[in-house]
């Protein structure tokens, strides 16, 4: 399967909002509400930020939110802070319930 | 607290084998499926393999199917990835992660594998 499609990079100034898109197909993103988002700082392991499209794990600021429309999921980060600068990956389980597919990753730059 | 610690990575020649381990602690290991995910240098995340909590069967990405085997020993709280016929394109940091529902809520710090002659 091909990776989910994400923009290679996005940027925003502190305090602004940015949205990262993640486009898949009717066999993955569009099939079920099992999209998750991961943040990864350089040299570190990925960290879960959003799961099941729009749920936040405890400890993740409510500045992070997720949504989905059709085959495209989105991660919105409001009130940008310097520490939000990182790579972000979307992920979806597929309609086989066994395969996992990631997006290519988006680098967020906080200007 | 939940901890996942990978080990077993290293530098190997093409065509050889390597076994990675992931020691789990701080949760009921036998109640969770587990993933291996890898990241090639400068690249994105790539799912490699999945094993459900009972360990009866693994699922694999097409890129490793037939060469890699995922397994677990619930009595030792340890996840494994046996990698055979290694190729240069298998060079990556390998992470283990805990499956919770349909997300990976905890990740290890990763172990690097370099396949080079």
Structure write-up:
The complex is a heterodimer of chains A (111) and B (117). By secondary structure, chain A is mainly beta. In chain A, 0% of the residues lie in helices and 43% in strands. In chain A, the strands form two sheets. In chain A, strands 1, 3, 4, 7, 8 and 9 form a six-stranded mixed β-sheet that branches. In chain A, strands 2-6-5 form a three-stranded antiparallel β-sheet, with no helix packed on it. The N and C termini of chain A lie far apart (35 Å). With 117 residues, chain B is mainly beta. In chain B, 0% of the residues lie in helices and 54% in strands. Chain B is built from no helices and eleven strands. In chain B, strands 2, 4, 5, 6, 9, 10 and 11 form a seven-stranded mixed β-sheet that branches. In chain B, strands 1-3-8-7 form a four-stranded antiparallel β-sheet, with no helix packed on it. Chain B starts with a strand and ends with a strand. The chains are: A mainly beta (111), B mainly beta (117). The A-B interface holds A 1, 3, 32, 34, 36, 38, 40, 44-48, 51-52, 57, 87, 89, 91, 93, 98-105 and B 35, 37, 44-47, 50, 59, 61-62, 95, 97, 101-105, 107-110.
Can you give me a brief rundown of this structure?
With 111 residues, chain A is mainly beta. Chain A is 0% helix and 43% strand.
Element layout with pairings:
The complex is a heterodimer of chains A (about 110) and B (about 120).
Chain A: E1 9-12, E2 18-23, E3 35-40, E4 47-50, E5 64-69, E6 72-77, E7 86-93, E8 100-102, E9 106-110
Parallel strand pairs in A: 1-9
Antiparallel strand pairs in A: 2-6, 3-4, 3-7, 5-6, 7-8, 7-9
Chain B: E1 3-7, E2 10-12, E3 18-25, E4 34-39, E5 45-51, E6 58-60, E7 68-73, E8 78-83, E9 92-100, E10 103-107, E11 111-115
Parallel strand pairs in B: 2-11
Antiparallel strand pairs in B: 1-3, 3-8, 4-5, 4-9, 5-6, 7-8, 9-10, 9-11
């Amino acid at each position: 399967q091909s990776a989910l499609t994400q923009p290679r990079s996005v940027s925003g100034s502190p305090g602004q909002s940015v949205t990262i898109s993640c486009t898949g197909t009717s066999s993955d993103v569009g099939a079920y509400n099992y999209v998750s988002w991961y943040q990864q700082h350089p040299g570190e392991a990925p960290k879960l930020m959003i799961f099941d499209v729009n749920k936040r794990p405890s400890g993740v600021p409510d500045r992070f939110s997720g949504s989905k429309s059709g085959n495209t999921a989105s991660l919105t980060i409001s009130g940008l802070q310097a520490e939000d600068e990182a790579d972000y990956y979307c992920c979806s389980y597929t309609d086989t319930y066994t395969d996992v597919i990631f997006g290519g990753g988006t680098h967020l730059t906080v200007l | 607290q939940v901890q996942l610690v990978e080990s077993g990575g290293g530098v190997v020649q093409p065509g050889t084998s390597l076994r990675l381990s992931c020691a789990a602690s701080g949760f009921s290991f036998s109640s969770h499926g587990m993933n291996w995910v890898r990241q090639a240098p400068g690249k994105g995340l790539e799912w490699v393999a999945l094993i459900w909590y009972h360990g009866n069967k693994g699922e694999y990405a097409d890129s490793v199917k037939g060469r890699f085997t995922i397994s677990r020993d619930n009595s030792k709280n340890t996840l494994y990835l046996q990698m055979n016929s290694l190729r240069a394109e298998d060079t990556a940091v390998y992470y283990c992660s805990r499956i919770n529902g349909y997300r990976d809520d905890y990740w290890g710090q990763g172990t690097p594998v370099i396949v080079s002659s």
